[in-house]
Specification:
Chain lengths: 334, 334, 334, 334
């Protein structure tokens, strides 16, 4: 970390500060210029609070040189993390496709889709039981009944299930869920992240609509700091000024995250774009860019889906996407 | 609401759709052109799910003409809502200043600041007990002990207290808190909002970093739909490409929200800018633009604050800001 | 187009307005509801000024149903446009790679790179003669001498050349240039676009840093309205809050533009990301998503390039990217 | 400037680099740690090309400590710049209001408005002769005839005139124009800026829709580097995800720019918001925040304005805004 000192800093305050750094096993190096004095800190600065440092009387600004995350950092864990979910692996060259409806609506709907996506090659079944909706007047999901239906579909098809948690108080309902999803709006629900760090379930952590990659990794760090290292990162589009798509899918996040972290990275082209016709090109693009998996919305009747139908594929379309992705995978940039 | 139909839409499907709308007391009007057919819907469309409509086979796109919020809508409630908190009023021409430290650190710290901000004219005391921090390694707040200290400071000074809730499971700790704050990262924590709708406490709802004003109002609607109409909206900066300030304070949100809703609107210049020197100009600007109040961070020793010191004012600076705001208030644009 | 009228609109003003629309061969349809009255316009509304309509006394808001661009619109020109540049074709299934240095620095530098990128399979040579730089103190390009060197390299290698124009007054220097590039900062330099519409040279039009796809297409429309239909669109990253990459490459723009327009779409991963290690994954992703070409920075000694070295590839790296792209192309989603 | 070196940097390359810095009168200071080596540079680094440094083999990253602008920098020019335009002064405590129509439409229209805004207290007359419009089919302005009409209105009222230049080739038409405006879309039209640096006319430089404050100051630096120090900066809203206003007015830019530079800063609330009802609250907010002036659109018949009517005020409304601003000015935060 680099601290730039104020022009007329107090020498005594600097002495106190450097003494304090030494207590924390950080070695300070001073560089004095005509107008600018710089204090470099050598050592593990990941637990220093940059806001606090910047608020000090003698400090003009502080800049990190090293990433503030450790457990998620590839520097300290060079091998890809491989997460096993039943027979499915994700990461380290294993590509997994998660598919299913936006919302769980009925046993018939869910089981039909589950069998269809399994036949088309999906490795995991997704389905929303608890649904975060912008409007209190929109369908909020079947909630605990939805989880029961997912477990039935799992029993029937053998597909492990992925579903979203919206509040800590529901955690006990997720006992038999295979992968717990943290949605974009909860990416910085730190109390939830901490508690999930004490489970031993894989967590699918979606990037917030306006979260930087560093913030996403810090949220993964919250889970990992609690002892749960099974975190799957999910790029699902960020909010920009462009209105032609629901969000802007940041595919460059895939190779960049893969450089920064050993955790697997999947892409959700359905929520990112909000347009079913874009799911195929964005799926093959994500696979080509080195993603470890995809999360795709599939509905047996998209025109009657209770939510987000506009972005869902039919099972036939999903099968077509899966084939296109499989064709590109051998040539992916990894 | 306006539905644009696809060019070769099925007449039978249209009949079914219009019948369904009529069941919902919506009157459909069809306008057919050479290339475009438009279906206008007259009636209360606030509970229609626009995503579902757009996913229908015969629908090209759907556009709302009316706002999707009702309880928060000024059209149906033209008078300003006035919220009373102890002796303090906010809204309807009553301007309130909330001040205090980012984090509650100790009884001495908190009580000292509380007395100083009271002397300077603050109407409410703020202080963080539960602290949302990007890093799991940063100070997370004194938690329930912090709330105890806030209650002590309240007893000593008489100032009502405002503090942030981070998880539903902590709600019972907030029994004697006067105003419950929902932070920017929880603005769309819908389970939390629903539960707060069943309390009768004023809720200070902060705008999310990438939330539109309509989304902010929909989150207020979640609380109000549960029966709690005491919602105070708080503009605290949005995330943009600009890096010179922590966020971009959207002061135009103030008059715009005041047109759209009857709820009071306060501004937090401390978090918005992250720079203590900008707190004064942004406070007078917000007051001039018609805000109903301000929320300002004050610390007795900003250079040693455990978090966010860079944006805190000293009590003397706060007193100076308060005077500048009082001078501008009579000339505010309301 | 849809006009929503104000609640108590003047009937006489409405009559005048509908008469005016009929004069313009637009057929107005009125839908009256309890609170909302809607005026639908059937016909070619592409030349209506939406701002002017919204400013009218009786109009609450106006919304377009149809795209405001015509010449660039795939609806009126379903076949892909194929642009021929010497022996190279771009569009309609023809994929072209444009490669070369950020800045032209010397004859030796340019000719060496030109031969290397040609050997690796590039179809066109790029090189900056006029350089838009944020700082007046940074290297501004060799200007007309740079164009002379590009022409020498063209003569030597046979590669057609692409170079950027920064001001209308330089147009005569571009007589022998094969493709004129309009940079992101000039995407809405309308006087320049109009004049380029009167040339018969292919124009490579880069998307502005904060331009929507519709604005990009409207800028293409400026060129096409002048008679020049040879416009190549270039996605080169948009400005977002993310700071880990220079810009955010919006790959979803590729399939979306291909739906909206018949013009070829190329992608510039070098400027979009600003990071050389991301050029390969983003190149294969763009190809997989259906792009018609790529524009890649190549330098024989990136560590000494006079500008933008951090994002340049060596000729060896470029050759590796070209092979990876060629492998993916047969499986692209088009 | 700080350079972070790569972990296994070549000692010989470092020697060459430090020698090169010494030639440029920069003093390098090395700080070596276990994992990180930092090279601090003391001296005037404003002319160093940060991109080039980051591309060097041994450099991991480079960070500026000092601002890259000099002529515009308040550090080297602590006094406010005061610009005189006829009898009007702007900057250094002098507040100026520029008002007039979006587009010049006719002599009658312009002269009527000019007299009305003068009567209401405007110091300068604005009016668009050359109009940048997104669509080639929208009204493009009266061009040179528009400038003639502005000069007539100037003669009649004595108000100095402000109007926008869109291309260098029109410069001779601006001989009698008092203030040349550079629009947001041309903020980085560097060839235009350079040429304006050789005139001796005040330049009103608008911030680009996605330009940082540093980029705005670098564009001012382009003009000043040519010898013309009469630059007025104009905040006019930035592009964000929010769609309720046309752009987001960044009022915090006002006090921040005033800290960074000695140049006057004005605010354009009309273009920023695009909503006439927001012009008054945003005008008083900008004045309260310390702006040196305002630029406001006024039209005698906003409902028939040929462009941007939705954001224009009537002369009566303008007079009301002017009075509200005058009332707040004595209490502005400066």
């Amino acid at each position: 970390m680099i601290l730039v000192l104020k022009e007329n800093y107090d020498k005594k305050q600097l002495e106190n500060l450097t003494a304090w750094f030494r207590e924390k096993n950080l070695e300070p190096h001073l560089t004095e210029g005509a107008h600018t004095t710089i204090l470099g800190l050598i050592g593990d600065t990941s637990k220093l609070d940059i806001d606090m440092l910047e608020s000090m009387d003698i400090v003009e600004s502080a800049k990190r040189i090293q990433e503030p995350f450790k457990s998620a950092n590839r520097k300290f864990h060079p091998e890809d993390t491989v997460i096993e979910i039943g027979d499915v692996k994700i990461g380290g060259g294993n590509f997994a496709v998660i598919a299913g409806p936006c919302s769980v609506e009925s046993e018939e709907q869910l089981c039909t889709i589950a069998e269809q996506v399994k036949a088309a090659g999906a490795g995991l079944l997704r389905g929303g039981a608890f649904k975060p909706r912008t409007s209190p007047y929109a369908f909020q999901g079947l909630r605990s009944e939805g989880i029961d239906l997912l477990l039935k579909a799992k029993k029937k098809t053998g597909l492990p299930i992925v579903t979203e948690i919206m509040d800590l108080s529901h955690l006990s309902l997720f006992d038999e869920v295979d992968v717990i999803q943290v949605g974009a709006r909860n990416m910085q629900n730190f109390e939830l992240l901490k508690e999930l760090g004490h489970t031993n379930k894989p967590i699918l952590l979606k990037r917030g609509l306006s979260s930087t990659l560093q913030e996403l990794l810090m949220s993964a760090e919250y889970i990992m700091a609690g002892g749960n290292e099974k975190v799957i990162l999910c790029e699902r589009g960020i909010r920009t000024f462009e209105t032609a798509t629901r969000n802007t899918l940041d595919i460059s996040a895939v190779p960049l995250l893969r450089q920064l972290t050993h955790l697997p990275v999947v892409v959700d082209p359905s929520h990112a774009t909000g347009i079913s016709k874009l799911v195929k090109p964005m799926s093959v693009a994500a696979a080509a860019a080195g993603a470890d998996g995809l999360m795709i919305e599939v509905h047996n009747d998209p025109s009657r889906a209770l939510c987000d139908g506009a972005q869902s594929l039919t099972p036939e379309q999903f099968s077509d996407v899966k084939k296109a992705v499989d064709a590109v995978l051998p040539f992916a940039s990894r």
